[in-house]
Amino acid sequence: MAAIPPNSTVTGDRLRGWRLVGWVLLLLAGGFPVLGAGLDLLADARTGLPADHTGTFRAVTDLDWQSARSTAPGIAHYVSLLEAGYALHELTFGLLFLVIVAIPFRRRQRWAWWAAWLPMIANLGYTLTFGAHDPTVLTRSLIADIALPVLLVANIPAFFPARAGRRAG
Q1: All residues at 6 or more sequence positions from 50 whose CB lies less than 8 Å from its CB, including other chains
Q2: Cα–Cα distance between 109 and 116 in angstroms, integer?
Q3: Rounded Cα distance, 37 and 86, in Å
Q4: CA–CA distance from 97 to each of 26, 69, 123, 161 (Å)?
Q5: pLDDT at 3 over 80
Q6: In this predicted model, what pLDDT tens digit does every residue of 57-101 receive, in sequence order?
């Protein structure tokens, strides 16, 4: 089987296909915080605490959520308020990430590649706070902690192509 020349259409199509896959995966990665924030807001309205945060609450307070709600309703209300505020922040930054990936990132604007790293602050913060106290949350948070850098590093050639006169070697 003959090798495909580097400038062939097949190679270019394959490269564009992989870039599209990487872009779609970044959009999906950005969709998870948006979905999670929406579900958290629903849980906050229903019970005051999302189900995936009850393990962390128990680990930190040594109480289950229902006991806290009945014995210290003012504190439980405050925790619910913090949870809702946290979910709104997560929703805001998730939507901002999606807009950046959908438009300037897709157009290969270099600043968008750099800006796409910013959610790592929130991702690592979530891992080090909620995940540090609940192994289930830790496992889920590590997915985002690993996926985002891998997807962004995979996009380096699209944003920082080798210079025309430069040779590998």
Answers
A1: 39, 40, 43, 44, 83, 87
A2: 11
A3: 8
A4: 9, 35, 13, 23
A5: no
A6: 999 999 999 999 999 999 999 999 999 999 999 999 999 999 999
Q: Are 63 and 56 in contact (CB under 8 A)?
A: no
Identify the CA nearest to 104 among candidates 16, 30, 31, 23: 23
Question: End-to-end alpha-carbon separation of the chain, Å?
Answer: 27
CA distance 166 to 108: 21
* Amino acid present at 51: A
Tokens representing residue 39 in the block: 């579900």
Higher-pLDDT residue of 75 and 18 is 75
Alpha carbons 104 and 118: distance in angstroms, whole number: 15
Helices (H), the chain: 9-46, 54-61, 65-71, 73-100, 110-115, 119-129, 135-154, 156-159
